[in-house]
Amino acid sequence: MLNYLMLNSGLALDRDKIMEAVWGYDFVGESRTLDIHIRSLRQKLGTAGNHIKTIRNIGYKLGE
Description:
The chain is α+β, with helices and mostly antiparallel strands. It has a single domain, classed as Arc Repressor Mutant, subunit A, CATH 1.10.10.10. The chain is 45% helix and 16% strand. The chain has helices at residues 2-7, 15-23, 32-45, and strands at residues 13-14, 52-55, 59-62. It has a three-stranded antiparallel sheet with strand order 1-3-2. It is globular and about 35 Å long.
């Protein structure tokens, strides 16, 4: 997930696009799964996790 965010740094990525890229088209689960993984990733990155921004009603963005 971090790699995907880094490859698309500065772009607002919608939730479905992130889930397809990370888990594939056959992913069966809730979009809340993405939120949990993003939260975990932010925690693991420490202060650098602040660079993962939530874009309301869209998804997430790395940078700025």
